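Look at a sample.

——
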Amino acid sequence: MKKTPAKPMDFNFAKIRERYFISNIFSFNCSLSSVDFRSFVNGESVGEKAKQCLKKGMFFSDYLDMDRAAKCLRRNFFMDWKGPHVHIISVTKRCNSFCSYCGASAGPFRPLESDMTLETARKTLDFIFSVPNKKIMIEFQGGEPLLNFRAVKYIVEKAKKRGEKEGKELSFSIVSNLSVMDGKILKFLLANRVVVCSSLDGPKFIHDLNRKLLKGSSYEAAVRWLGRINALAIKKKFEKPNAICTISRFSLNYPKEIVDEYLRLGLVRIQVGPLDKTGRAKTHWNKVGYLPEEFLSFYERALDYIISLNKKGIGVYEKGAFLFLSHMLNYQRPRYHNLDLLMRLAYNWDGGIYGSDEARMIANSGEETLKLGSVERDSFKDILNRPLSKLLLLSNFNFLNQVRCSRCAWNPYCHAMPALNLSSQNSFWGNMIVNDRCKIYRGIFKLLCRKLDSRETMWIFKKWLSLHES
């Protein structure tokens, strides 16, 4: 075969059926036939379609656009970083439900003293506003945050006043089981554009089995308020609500039923997430947990059903796949990518500061290894100068510190969180060879690549990306 002057740049690859998925440090990727892949590796001529993809993705050293390469590297290494913009505040450890898999180890038997005080809330805001990022997204968590609505209201009102004064771009969201929602609270959230997110694990028999409310049905509370908020959103009076489906062992046989439940409520964004081995889920893993292969089987059936609905003109989409596809097809890093300290910080009810919400939750189980400091005594500058912070920042670039990740084709689009590694494998770095979350992510990436072989499915995925924000 005729040699081409183009020399391959460094790349990673994975074989999927009879094709090869390749990626590089710039976050670009190509899908090559076996023939084109062998020719590319050997420095020989490839088909025109493959050549154009490889040139555009800067896989050839001879066609390297240095200005474009520098721009991509600046983006991938966060060279314009101004500090995290997502701030997750747990305003209480109390909760009026006792979920079988609660990662935060919250529950109804926590004392009032585990509510965030207004003084701690003020100091938390002082810390957040000391971060030199113009954008601030505040998310309220718990426990059940509406049990300490006083703190939620205080933070929103004070943050808005400070934001106007200091030129910050503010947004708010709250994650609630909605069981103590009422008209007065909803009116406040509406007036202040606080986006509502709740758990919806599927039909009543699944949801109430996973998420037990002390009094009444957690399912009925969730669907009542999700339906009401969604109706307001349709009338352009409120932001559309978000709902998250956490997959437990009890969910594995019901992918279609779960998707249909979302559609019944008028929700087109479905987010089916694997169970984290933290908190109560870790303690009861033999009852609620499963193997990665079991989750992947469920996920493929759910995704297949969602794709089939799209073919019928029903525009439902799966959020996890959407975020991965956004990065893989549009080369855009999701705005809320879960990168410890780089993109987010979490604050416990007592003012403790953590690099992620997962780190905050495992701290509630007694694992304080990943605590960065406290709003009671530390500034953002103090936090940044600590060895743990530097370690967390380094962990976000896993191709630099993980042997398996460094040669993984999915590396540009993936991240193994230290908190989950610590909780499941007793190691900050984890062991990716046997890491369950790594297995799940690799399985999803391979599944998406197989689906992209279909032109019709590719068109559906691209439509998702054109209609929704990442």
Observations:
- Residues 84 and 464 are 27 Å apart (CA to CA).
- The mean pLDDT is 93.
- Residues 1-80 form one domain.
- The two ends are 43 Å apart (CA to CA).
